[in-house]
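Audit log entry. Action: structure prediction of a protein-small molecule complex. Ligand: flavin-adenine dinucleotide. The ligand was supplied as SMILES and no pocket hint was given, so placement is left entirely to the predictor. Protonation state taken as written. Sequence taken verbatim from the request; no trimming, no tag removal. Recorded inputs:
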Amino acid sequence: MPREWDLIVVGGGPGGAAAAAVAAVAGLETLLLERGGTLRHKPCGGILPEITEELIEEVFGATLPPEVLAEQWELRLRYTPPSGEANGGRVRESRLLNVKRDHFDQWLRDRAALAGATVRQNARVSDIDVDGGFSVSYSQRGEERRATAARLVGADGVHSLVRRRLAPDAVATKMLVGQRLVQVVGELPADFHCVFAGVLSPFYAYSVPKGGLLKIGSGMTEEERTDLMPSLDRFSKWLEQNDVADLGKVVQQEGWAIPFGEQQLDAAGALLVGDAAGLCNPLSGEGIRLAIESGQLAAESIIEAGARSPVPDYRDGVAGIAQMVAALHRVVLTTDDDAREQFVAAELARP
Ligand SMILES: Cc1cc2nc3c(=O)[nH]c(=O)nc-3n(C[C@H](O)[C@H](O)[C@H](O)COP(=O)(O)OP(=O)(O)OC[C@H]3O[C@@H](n4cnc5c(N)ncnc54)[C@H](O)[C@@H]3O)c2cc1C
């Protein structure tokens, strides 16, 4: 049966934009479907490790423009262990990028369009049929539509419809991350501050300057969800008591999930990338870079495989990321305050 597209990508976050950009540059007729409108909001800290800059240039063919960067666009990483500020400090040579996530994602989608992909926003995918290829139903501005393709990439995030439809039995454990945007009286802290202490949060608590405000966050398992907002209250107090910041009014409060350990790299011949595949660092909550990398690998596997199934190539290509995520998940499950203390001491002692 003739297909309209070589590839349909569901979801236009970092993973989907990367897959679409790489596929389109190679000449594949690529359709990207994103349910959100322009500047769709995604709850996120918007922190990228330095090496992401190079990756973005490689995948999207351009460097990040100033309009996607937060006012304090370059940050250092500061760790505090459970024993407190006295034993914390800046990680030597650390350099992090601080982006405005909504603008960042839109720029990535625009780059995919410039590369030649057809990008449809306000296009919510509702169903997928597998019939030798893929038939995707979606609605766009009240109109029900359908598109067909030989290949499919599921880049639709932690609650992925592609994964739920094509691998209904796959387990998808999640971690919840709560965030508050808070006014600060006086000076904003200058670092990305990551605080480890069981009394504050079972995983991590962080603060990041964003515009003239401070974003503070905390992560929990789904079972601990009722403690998410109390954890942010405890962390707010901690920031004040430790003279990190004098907090004012809460401007915004939100929560969203990240994958926590369980992976599903493909389903019924479709390739899953980023959060949809479970590829997010459970130790730090970092997922943007892994989404871009896996999106790139998915597109490259599709290009390389031609008429063959791209699944084996993709599994091979993404194995390094998948193993790292699995290893960090095992670490997180066995981590207590003693282990966190040692982790911070080792990070700060690094030459
Ligand atoms: C509170 C919080 C803070 C975080 N902070 C950081 C951080 O500082 N640094 C970092 O690296 N990572 C961070 N992460 C993780 C990071 O946000 C994710 O790992 C990353 O966004 C994954 O990218 P993705 O492209 O796989 O999925 P997403 O960014 O979730 O993109 C999926 C896209 O698919 C679209 N979509 C979903 N369903 C459909 C559908 N049915 N039809 C069409 N489109 C659909 C969505 O609208 C979305 O645009 C944080 C996560 C949370 C929750």
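Audit: result stored. The chain has two domains: 5-71+98-173+260-333, 174-258+337-349. Residues 5-71+98-173+260-333 form a domain with the FAD/NAD(P)-binding domain fold (CATH 3.50.50.60).
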